[in-house]
Every structure is written in structure tokens, then in C-alpha cells.
Amino acid sequence: MKIKSTLIIVSMVLVLINNVYAIERILEVSLEIAKDGEAKINNIKTNTGFTGNYNTGNYSLVLDYGKKTETYRFSPNFYLRILDKESMHRDIEIPIARETLYLPYSDDLFSIKVLNGVETVAFLSLGSLLCNNDGLCQKNENFVGCQSDCNSYEKDGVCMNIKDDRCDPDCSKDQDYECTGNLSQFNIKTNNLRYSLYGLLGIVILYLIYRYLKKS
To answer: What are the backbone dihedrals phi and psi of residue 80, each rounded to the nearest 5 degrees, phi first?
Structure first.
């Protein structure tokens, strides 16, 4: 039992080490929804980051991958919080809600549908919108969703602070250390984090060995 627990803990730490710099691809979907139920997909783009939780609401956004679909539920916010003359927060009703959803992304996605209840109020067929494989990085394309057309250091609206020996113009100097010409600082921080995690792994193993010897 103790050996099993040790293996589980060690495996968790190793997974953490290997995924410190893992990039999760997401799809940002910007919507405009009117109080009468009409909706419009304003913009979509691929990016890196974290997905949101969309489990409840009277509206649904459906990602269609052909062989499967994924549905995300949400409720538009038709209220805007303002600060009045008495420095009090007050919510005022607005006719159009603007929402941005952060969803998982996969290359085989080919359409997006928005439903109000069971009624389809917006639809977008992606086709080659996010990647047309023409060798040019343009419009909705970026390195995250179209590596065949865009380089990691392309000016495509997405900061890719990865080690590629090039400065990404979408990044600030604090985000991409290669923009400062000081890669050593980037390497030091990277190594320090990895060494810290390996140190944590060693402490866990030593502690478990100590407990085992103490009880045996």
C-alpha cells in the first residue's frame, strides 16, 4: 500500500514537471447578443490560456467537429455596473450583451452554432477561416492555430514566449526574454523552477522512506 502511494505521488510530481510549460490551445469566441434573442459571432481567434466553465444558462454554444459535438451553456449579462455621482455602484440594463467564451480548440473544428433554447440564433462555418495553408500569415491566422502559415515570432496578435531564438513582436520584453537579448535570464528562471520541482520530489521520497523505516 505504501509503495503504491509513493508511486502515485512520484507520478504526480513528474507530470507537474513535464507540463510546467505545456501550452493549452483555446478558441476565443466573441459574441453580441440582443435582448430580443438575436445573436452575432463578432470574432474568433485561437490563443493559448485556460478554458472557462460553461455549464448553466439558457444559451448554448455548440462546437461541431464532424464526428462529435461539444456544447457549452451560458447566460448573457444584460447589466452594466457603473459608479454614480454618490460613488455608489449601480447596475443599469443594456440592450446588447457582449460575451467572450474561452473554449478548447482542435484543428478538426469546422462550425460554431449559438442557440437560444432550441432555436439557432447564430451560425459560422469555419472552413479555412483559421488556417488556409497558403504560406501567408493573415486575418484570423496565428501560430497557435496555423503553424503552416505563421511562425512563432510572427506579428499575429498572440504572444508566444517560447525559446525560438527570435523576438515575438506581440510580446513585451518582460514576456519574451529573447526580445531583450538576454537569454541567460530566461534559462536561469527555467532551470530554477525545474530544480525546485525536482527538489520537492526528492523531499517527498525521503519523507516516505523515513516513515516506512520508522514503522518497520
So the answer is: -120, 125
Q: Clarify whether residues 16 and 37 are in a common domain.
A: no
165 and 104 in a common domain: no
Q: Look up cell 452594466; give the residue.
A: 80
Q: How far apart are CA 135 and CA 124, in angstroms?
A: 24
- Domain assignment of residue 17, given as a range: 1-21+152-216
The answer on 15 and 33 residing in a single domain is no
H-only helix segments in the chain: 2-18, 183-215
Cell numbers placing 64: 461541431
Per-residue model confidence (pLDDT) at position 200 = 80
Domain assignment present for residue 211? The answer is yes
- The confidence score (pLDDT) of residue 188 equals 46
d(Cα 195, Cα 103) in Å, to the nearest integer? 33
- Which tens digit of pLDDT belongs to each residue from 97-129? 999 999 999 999 999 999 999 999 999 999 899
Domain count, the chain: 2
